Amino acid sequence: MAETTPVAEELPRLNDSLFIPCLQRDYCWSQQQVEMLWDSLLRGLPLGSILVWDRAVNEREDPAYKFIRHYVDERGYSHEEEVRRYSKRLPGFPDSYTLILDGQQRLTSFYIGLYGSYTTRIHGAWKKNASSYNRRHLYLDLLSGEEGDNHDRELVYEFDFRKSGGLNSAGDRYWLRVGSLLEAGSGLTEDAFLDESQFVEQVEGELPSSLSDTERSDAIDTAEQLWWGVNQRNAILYERTLANEKTARELFIRRNKGGIELSGVDILLALLTGYWETVEEEGTPTDAKNEIERFTERLSGNERLSEEGFTFGKRFTLRTLLLLSGETPSFRRDGRYDGELLTEAEDIFRDEEFEEAVVNAFELAADLGFHDAALSSKTVVTPVIQFLYESDYDTSGENEKIHYWLATTVLNSIFGDIGSQQVLETARQHIWESDGDEFPAVDILEELSGRGAPTQLDEGRLDQLLDEIGYQSGSRRNVLLTHLYRGERRAGHAEYEVDHIFPRKKLGDRDYLENHGVEPEQVEWHKDHRDHIANLQLLSSEGENQSKSDRDFSDWLERVEEGEVKSLSGTNEYFETHLIPQDEAKHEYPQFESFLTGESGRKRFMKHVLKETLPLSSSA
Length: 620
What we know:
InterPro entries: GmrSD_N
Protein name: DUF262 domain-containing protein
Pfam family, one: GmrSD_N
Domain GmrSD restriction endonucleases N-terminal: 18-272
Number of domains: 3
Number of helices: 27
């Protein structure tokens, strides 16, 4: 049966007898969402129902969390102990308690607004400096509240997170801290709320004398509305359930499809927190959510990996753990995972060799020419992580099989066309069956053949790729260009720009081409092939690319020869670095086709180099 209570009656239960189950996602509402909720409270608008889960204490084993009082919306914040990004895990349960299955975001928002604070980082400020953060409390403008007013963000009652209150300099707003509803210095108990007469008298005594009688009257009316909204309005509509664990999880998933939809990652994190039962030395239970967050921050902060553009999140970490534990490496919204395998995932996560395998795998990938922009997804590296974690493989050698795996899967879009789950499961099985001496790339790819994507990388396939991959080909383009420059220049990296040799815009301009001697019947070919990979080069971001701009190729070569392009001593160096045909006739628009695909065209030069730098199947 549904019940209704005022906010003032419900909030004292938070962290006393009402807690958050491990199923729940972390708090994630913005300041604006909190302000809109409080506006709805005072206006009498529906707030939605809340679902609570009653269970006997001796029936529970899963962990629970406290509601956040002082929230910060920044990962890795560590400047004030009481200010938190994530809820704190309970070491145990009180004798009588309830868990919130749906409504955590709203209750936490009321809690923060009345009794807590909300901290944000100043835009662009250095996150490691304490001075980079604004810790603010919720205030209400007592001069707001009329339906006809044109208030910011369409709020009738204008709430705002601020450092201080009082009358603003323009004299048209008076900010009252929402926490003034509580007796100064008290905790959050039912007795801490001021009665209406005390509250109104307190507000009247603080209003400045400069306000007109009308403004004072309006301010008191708004203050009374705030008191009514918190103390008398039956705003919290909640339902109770005595469901068992399985049913409660199903209810939780269904109910949370309404607001910010619960993701498969959220569900898995919640379950891991329940299954990971390790207790730290000081006796505090571990917290999978926070530990995985710290793990991803540590990886993302690795100097070498960050230089290569790699950043890491929960999704990648969780999928890798699922793969290594033997679970299906995908996220299930129904929450149906094998509990024993989730426990196995904890053992892997706590093994220091797991993090070492992740770092080594990505460093190796970067050494082989696969920085972040040259990977279709970090998931491509996940089988390599498994292989390094489960074997004593020495990465100081040629690593031809791993190179072949990375190049073949990215260039052939194997993960995208076949599907990550099928590729990962196939790879996992072959890695389990291998002797650990060599990465079983060929065996994995042979089993995947015929399932929607080419699974080989040989000279014939390279021919196809050189015509198939162009300017818009993302990571595939970046792999070919990075290998073309033997890793000395990296496509997609901030230091280099992927540039058209013959300017793209002019190759699509019929009048311009015909005026420069291109036969009318050849114009369409020029346009269709302007993004061909043989018309692409890597120029340094600072000098070369700015100089090239949209210049005709022949004109730009004159600037190179005259020493006007930074970092280039002349055309001979340029031709050698970028594998450019030196025949001057090929540098003009009428010879564009010959420049790209002729007998001595750039595609032929590119293929010759790529046959050496890519791990084609004859050498894999």
